[in-house]
Write a structure and sequence with these properties.
heterodimer; A: mainly alpha; two-stranded antiparallel ribbon; 15 helices; 10 strands
Chain lengths: 469, 348
């Protein structure tokens, strides 16, 4: 494996892994705070149980997100020292601010998770709100740094070196608004609908379980509005790409020839050798309209650019199709749920909606991976668009396949453990509330170790007491 | 001046990481070395002490990295290239430590499961500080700066850190973290016996710090002559040595006479003095003998904005941190709960 490819693969794998936990770190605190708010207002013990379980899930996922994020901050230099040396002074600012937002998130998450019986209810809820807010803010700052790589501004290049650096101008890169909006909505849509989907599945098995009924409602409140707004934000993003990164747009759409009145291609396979996209469903004029607001607008094709500046076309096109398709489905299901709710129907009793939500559960995360593939692979061969090629940025260190394989194995291992823990320790342990007394766990299984994790005993200081006795 | 201010902030962030995050790693060391009749209680106390704060403490490391690549980008690039291997191994340790600790907290409470995660957590807690120290030692020795660009793989990527001096610093770091952790834990323990366990451990770790520091100084004559000279050369350096010595003796005396709050303060002061002594010894270099603070600094506008950002961030950070430590480490959290035993029951 060539070193550049190994470095790119390691970065892609690390980002793909981390983004899941980063997104959950933004979305889950919102869910857990809403559940806790419900408990404080209604004194419904099921809502408290829900808040605590979601908090446990958040704790596990946040920890993995924190350590995999640390890995990324080092990998920026370990893999791309040329990039960091060049860009550090220009885009370090959002990273510094992200550092503080992340600090706030970690501090108040510690207070939230371990402070249930140490601080007032009001402070506890406030801590949760601060976790949710700082999580969103830290995500926004990191995405701003990435936005700059797509639309680098705030410096001049003289003799190949950046001069007249203006870090504030760099933060206000034209890509910042569309990218941060799209990613923040994606985080809420993906997390909200994933959680809704899980509880929809459990409701299909156990329709009367109040725990899942409440969970479904709270999760939809977070996920559905974001999913409905996401296509609009996607349109803003696409218009940005059309203006600032025409070659990326051409790859996304499989547009080889420059033409007026370009069609929108749905599906299909771009064949770089033949210079055409085959087997696509073409909607006449639609691309010109969507990208530039006019049926006769000219859309630049890949052929208008030198071959060495093309991104891998098929990967970008397919990833884009996947993202749009999944996002459309999520928006549609969310609208359906909203319509049913508006008609005062009990969503938890709508079995077809539940089935549709189960299907939507993994979609947000797949769409996020696909979307980042479009952004990152679509920017190739550049690491800083139009300024520095990825090949110029890579470390001279040989044998990069070794760290790539090491981190891949490590992350696969962590991924398996996390899924196992979430399933066994959170989903399938009965609570002490009335709802499940005497019943078997979901999936018809009686899980192992249930008695040890029964209600309340999970808090560490209490566990200390257990151990001492 | 601007670059010096940023470098000072960098050193402060690193100090915070050592004093807070370092102690969390030290806790892992004592988890591994837990023994005697109160083995379980020792481990439970460590888990209790670290649980609420380790993630916040860990962010100091991220702050160090971010400050480094924003304000001293050439330094960051150089470190990342030459120290690729130990940094990568350290990251594996960071990942394993954090995830294993969390998994242990939330996985089944059965002994076998707990021990499995506990072992992973403890081993990662030992390896990571050693590698961190190895990287520091490699920089301090001047080998990272001197490694020739066109040299072979061994000369550029292995030889600079695979030295007795770098590993002596690695062991010193480990001993120091263990010393900090044991000293802090004397204040967290709820009963006299447990406190005594950590008092003895703190004293043993203090001896280990002394031995490893002495070893590092001896090897420095051969591997790192510049730093050896820097540590003893000037009046300032000698004053720093003196301060380190005084705080070390104070910490040991306070532990011996069971003055635990004083011991904690003195241990923290000792660790800070060691760190600052290293910084002073290699001043004005960040990476001796090639990258000076001034020469490697980013343009002034970046430094100025970073300082403003740090000031703004501190306004948020300091009260938040104060609150975190107040809730979990403040008055009424350790000693005063000795008698009551159980925290209040949750009333659903």
């Amino acid at each position: 494996m060539p070193d550049l490819l190994a470095a790119r693969s390691q970065m892609a794998m690390s980002l793909a892994f981390h983004i899941i936990f980063a997104v959950v770190g933004i979305g889950m605190p919102a869910l857990m705070v809403l559940a806790e708010r419900r408990w404080q207002r209604t004194r419904d013990p099921v809502a408290l149980d829900l808040a605590k379980r979601w908090a446990k899930g958040t704790a596990i996922l946040f920890a993995v997100g924190a350590v995999s994020g640390t890995v990324l901050s080092f990998e920026l230099g370990l893999l791309w020292p040329g990039f960091m040396e060049y860009a550090g002074p220009i885009i370090g600012m959002p990273f510094s601010l992200e550092g503080f937002a992340f600090f706030t998130e970690a501090i108040f998450l510690g207070i939230y998770l371990y402070g249930w019986d140490r601080i007032s209810e009001r402070m506890h809820l406030t801590a949760g709100v601060l976790v949710a807010l700082s999580g969103a803010v830290s995500g926004i700052f990191v995405v701003i740094a990435n936005a700059w790589m797509n639309a680098p501004v705030g410096f001049d290049v003289v003799d190949g070196r950046p001069v007249n650096i203006d870090p504030l101008r760099a933060m206000l890169t034209p890509a910042a608004f569309s990218q941060t909006l799209h990613m923040t909505l994606a985080a809420y849509a993906a997390t909200g609908l994933a959680v809704a989907g899980i509880h929809a599945l459990l409701l299909l098995r156990d329709p009367l379980d109040r725990f899942h009924r409440i969970a479904l409602g709270v999760a939809l409140w977070v996920g559905a509005p974001a999913a409905v707004l996401q296509p609009i934000s996607g349109d803003i993003s696409a218009k940005f790409v059309a203006e600032y990164q025409p070659v990326k747009l051409a790859a996304m759409e499989g547009q080889f020839a420059t033409e007026r009145g370009a069609p929108l291609r749905i599906g299909g396979w771009p064949d770089e050798a033949r210079g055409e996209t085959r087997w696509a469903l073409e909607v006449p004029y639609a691309l010109s309209v969507l990208a530039f607001g006019s049926p006769s607008a000219e859309v630049k094709g890949l052929n208008a650019f030198p071959r060495e500046d093309w991104p891998p076309v098929a990967v970008v096109h397919v990833a884009f199709q996947v993202m749009v398709a999944l996002g459309t489905y999520m928006a549609a299901v969310s609208l359906w749920a909203a319509w049913l709710a508006w008609r005062k129907r009990e969503l938890a009793d709508e079995r077809w909606l539940l089935r549709a939500l189960v299907l939507a559960a993994p979609m947000g995360f797949i769409a996020i991976e696909a979307g980042w593939t479009v952004t990152e692979v679509g920017r190739q061969p550049w690491i800083i668009y139009g300024v520095m090629r990825t090949a110029e940025a890579v470390t001279p260190m040989p044998g990069l396949v070794v760290p790539f394989v090491t981190f891949t194995l490590l992350y696969v291992f962590l991924g398996v453990i996390v899924v196992w823990l979430l399933y066994r320790q959170i989903l399938s342990t009965p609570g002490a509330t009335e709802r499940r007394r005497g019943r078997r766990g979901p999936w018809g299984l009686t899980p192992i170790g249930v008695e040890a994790v029964a209600e309340g005993r999970e808090t560490p200081h209490r566990r200390l007491e257990d151990r001492q006795t | 001046m601007l670059s010096l201010s940023v470098a000072a902030c960098l050193l402060l962030a690193l100090t915070a990481y050592v004093l807070l995050g370092g102690a969390d790693f030290g806790g892992g060391v004592w988890d591994l070395l837990a023994g005697g009749p109160r083995r379980r209680e020792q481990r439970a106390l460590i888990a209790d002490a670290i649980g609420p704060i380790w993630e916040a403490n860990h962010v100091w490391l991220i702050l160090v990295v971010v400050l480094l690549f924003t304000c001293f980008p050439g330094v960051f690039a150089r470190l990342a290239v030459v120290l690729h291997i130990p940094l990568t191994l350290m990251l594996v340790g960071v990942v394993m430590r954090g995830s294993a600790f969390t998994f242990r907290t939330y996985d089944s409470q059965r002994d076998a499961v707990q021990r499995r995660w506990g072992t992973a957590f403890a081993i990662a807690s030992v390896i990571t500080p050693v590698l961190l120290g190895v990287c520091v030692g490699a920089v301090a020795s001047g080998a990272v700066g001197r490694a020739p660009a066109g040299a072979g793989v061994w000369a550029l990527y292995v030889a600079p850190w695979l030295t007795p001096f770098a590993f002596a610093v690695g062991l010193l770091t480990l001993a120091l973290f263990a010393f900090l952790a044991a000293t802090y834990l004397t204040l967290e323990a709820r009963d006299e016996a447990l406190r005594g366990d950590f008092r003895r451990r703190a004293l043993a770790a203090a001896a280990a710090v002394f031995v490893t520091a002495l070893a590092a100084l001896l090897v420095a004559r051969r591997d790192a002559p510049d730093i050896g000279a820097g540590l003893t050369g000037s009046g300032w350096a000698l004053a720093g040595q003196l301060a380190t010595g005084v705080s070390a003796v104070t910490a040991i005396w306070a532990l011996w006479t069971r003055r635990y709050p004083l011991a904690r303060a003195a241990a923290a002061a000792q660790a800070a003095c060691i760190l600052w002594g290293w910084a002073a010894a290699q001043y004005p270099f960040i990476i001796p003998p090639t990258h000076t603070i001034q020469g490697a600094a980013a343009p002034a506008v970046t430094l100025r904005l970073t300082l403003i950002g740090l000031a703004g961030g501190a306004v948020v950070l300091i009260p938040s941190l104060w609150y975190l430590f107040h809730v979990f480490k403040g008055p009424g959290t350790a000693f005063e709960r000795l008698g009551d035993g159980h925290p209040p029951e949750e009333q659903p």
